Amino acid sequence: MSWPQRVCTELAAATASAQVRRCCRQVQLAVLLRLAGQTYRCGAHLVIEAELSAAAAATARAALLAVPPAARPQRITLRPTGNTDRVLQITEPGTGRLATWTGLLETALRADGGLPRFVVSASRCCTVAAWQAAFLAAGTLSRPARGSELSVACPTTATALALTGLARRLPATPGNPGDSENVVPHATVRPPGRRMLPTGPAAELAAVSGDEEITALLTRIGAPATAADWATARRTAHARRTAPMLSGACSQNRQRQHRAATDTIAKLQTALEVLDGLGVTLPQPLTDAAQLRLAHPALSLEQLAQIADPPTTKDTIAGRLRRLLALAGSHTNNSTAPQ
Ligand SMILES: [Zn+2]
């Protein structure tokens, strides 16, 4: 099952709950029909038609049961068009009343063609319902190895803008490890590329990017299990991608360290021979540091500092080695200077 399908399956289960309020059912149906449906006249009849996935159709079916009798149309058909898709068709009598109840008539009359006003200004429970329906109708989620984006294809810019506003108001789910009050899912409007809606090409996308924000959004709209699995898969993909780079960087560091140690050892050996030849008595800490370096050529300065007696810091060891080399250098210059 693809990642978007997993989200849809979990959302469909969440929206099937008998606890869902009627206000939320109304919002779910309004958003499903706005994003995946169209309204047209067929002779004297007004027809509402929507192409829905199996999960979206299950949500639509539950939402239709909540339509008040006065707005309930008489003829509703939901017929399969493939393995997973369904076409929902609602015809007269009663279609006009349902189109009014779901705000479809209002948006058809508005120039911007956004979401109905009662959805845009919905209470917080309904912001969840709106995003559930939006994802079920036209949502997608990137594969963890490919990127970090969740988006909903929208028929108009106003619809995408409305969804971005609703995303900011989604209530956090306290006590859920995938969610935090501090992470606000920040959706933006962006060009749709080749994304399609059942009714034609999308005009814009309402998109959320960033692992934390996507996880928070999915958790808040009722898909916490998929959110957790997706976040884990993202971390695994990230670790796989960065592991070769890290091991490459580690081995480069080790090589650099080894070259520096070999270089220092060669200089130390020469310096000690020079100082010994001149009969110079070295301070004990300098002799100890030199002996440590010569005895353990493979260890880093930090490791040398740890095994020193008494233990010290790598800066101290490096400083003592530098002083010893400088001392040998100054004696060499003095002995070769013209008398
Ligand atoms: Zn509600």
UniProtKB/TrEMBL annotation:
It comes from the Bacteria. The keyword Cell cycle applies. Residues 252-328 form the Sporulation regulator WhiA C-terminal domain. Residues 129-170 form the WhiA LAGLIDADG-like domain. InterPro entries: Homing_endonucl, Sporulation_regulator_WhiA, Sporulation_regulator_WhiA_C, WhiA_LAGLIDADG_dom. Residues 169-199 are annotated as: Disordered. Pfam families: HTH_WhiA, LAGLIDADG_WhiA. Keywords: Cell cycle, Cell division, DNA-binding. PANTHER family: CELL DIVISION PROTEIN WHIA-RELATED. This is Cell division protein WhiA.
